[in-house]
Amino acid sequence: MGQGTTGIGDHGFLSDCHTAALTTPDGTVTWLCAPRFDGPAFLSGILDPDRGGEWTLEVQGARPADRAYVDETLVLETLWRGDGVEVAVRDLLAVRTPEGKEGLYREGVLVRLVECRSGTTSVRSRLRARPDFGRSEPRWESVDGGLREASGPLLSGAPGPGLTGDGDPEFLVELSEGDTAVFALDYLHGERRVDLGEGRALLRGTVDAWRAWSARTDYDGAGATHVRRSALTLRGLLHEESGALIAAPTTSLPEWPGGTRNWDYRYVWHRDAALVVLAFLRLGHEAEAGSYLSFLLRVCGRPKGWLPPVETVDEEPPPEEEVLDHLSGYGGARPVRTGNAAYSQHQLDVYGHILDAALSYEDATGSLPPDELARLATVVESARELWREPDEGMWEVRTDPRHWTSSKVYAWVCLDRAVQLAEMTGGEDEVPLEAWREEARAIRRDVLDHGYDPSTGSFVQSYGAANVDGSLLRIPLLGFLDGTDPRVLRTLERVEAELGEGGGLIRRYDPGETGDGIGTPEGAFLLCSFDMVSALVLAGRTDEARERFERLCGSGGELGLLAEEMTADGTQLGNFPQAFTHLALIEAAVNVDGAADREALHDWARTRSGNGGGTRRRRNGDDD
């Protein structure tokens, strides 16, 4: 199935917590990077079916009729039906959980099990590998029990593959009711030959591992089905070894049809930090929250004088941006990029995200080690030194830095959470606590003086600007002002009036008024759309919030996966699936479910820590 017929949101998502694959509704694998999320693509047909390669599957006399994940797992089952024929195809990136251990360990194998449930049929499956984003010609050689490609992967199965006249591997098999075939690609070691028995064992092990993980997800409130699928998606984006959460497993899926806003998101953005920690904690996955925070604090421990907003899963800078001119792009959207230049930007909000994450973790667990608390003090001191300077902002504009209102609010968050953390852990004598309190008050006064426009009664995108921005929706969510404050309410009104679209969608900003250095259209931002739900809860407009939440969740694909952006007609745009969209969905669901609370996710952490809300509610500099 080609790029013009499969919508971004119609893809399936497979993961073994080291790399990911995407599949179309007809079972074509159009995306696989090896050996990890940001590795070179072995299949990148989603970006160019001809040059990028794909792994197709056809069932004679049948068509794809239904697909769904097997229970609460990342094993995807596609049912093919025809006249007297039914075939089930189960696709998975195999994982296991060794006895007596926790975690999801990769097997390093993409497995495709094909089971004939009724009738008789022929199945053909062709692997058109195009290594390194199609920059290398595939070279297959026969080895005992399979075919090995020159870059390393080994293809095997029962029955085994052969080579077509054009040099691509192909499986051909006749199946009758009760028969099963297996096709497998060892992307990691290039040594594993998978027969039918092992294929079934890999399926059982993968289903059992994901079921066991999902069984620990503790949530049955509003939008539970969407929340639990979001949790699985986030776990699939969490790198098992490092604990890092990537933004998305893809690159260059466009933020507007045929547009140029095409970026590589296969890296770790620290703007996700607080929501990652809170979401995993709230859903019962303390180990994942802790491993992610440990990754984050290791990054903070490296002295730079500033904190880069993005890292790779092994704590290195992303590669320099490179344009792949030979790929036509999804739906013709070019350029196709790898690497990301955001690393060199200064984004002031990063400091607030990190301190908010640390405080939330300490709130809920009380287990931050003293050495990690000391690392956080260096983050706070950096924010004290830098907050008066302009920055590129959380949207990573490619024009001159400016004084973004949301950046200053997050600088306040950094100092506010630092004070609370010091008080909570008894570290008041080890840090300049009074200086931090005064800095928090100074930042707050600065935002109220320069980020607020008295003539319109609302906050604005940046100091001196007149337009609003979707990031302003987080002002009440961060506790900077109460959700019913008139300034907050008026900001919500303006965001809805100026950035709202049908179906509860909110754009992050107006590209023309913002002057982001790109200027082309983009879809509505799903992060901001779910943030509006949470903000409406805090504004006391619970019924409206719940209605918006249900509409947004209903606009996703049949598999419950969401991209970065969406058009008013429900077309998903941008890299997929997107971590911060699913994080914001979880936050909105918990807020809708706990509408009586001031902010449900943080209130949950306070209650669990035994603070009863006292410490977290003692805000710093509450003068208006």
TrEMBL record:
Ranges where the GH15-like domain occurs: 225-589
Bias (Basic residues) ranges: 615-624
Region of interest (Disordered), residue spans: 134-162, 605-624
Keyword Cell inner membrane listed: no
Domain Trehalase-like N-terminal: 2-155
Keywords for this protein: Hydrolase
One MF annotation (Gene Ontology) recorded for this entry: hydrolase activity
InterPro entries: 6-hairpin_glycosidase_sf, 6hp_glycosidase-like_sf, GH15-like, Trehalase-like_N
Protein's name in the database: Glycoside hydrolase family 15 protein
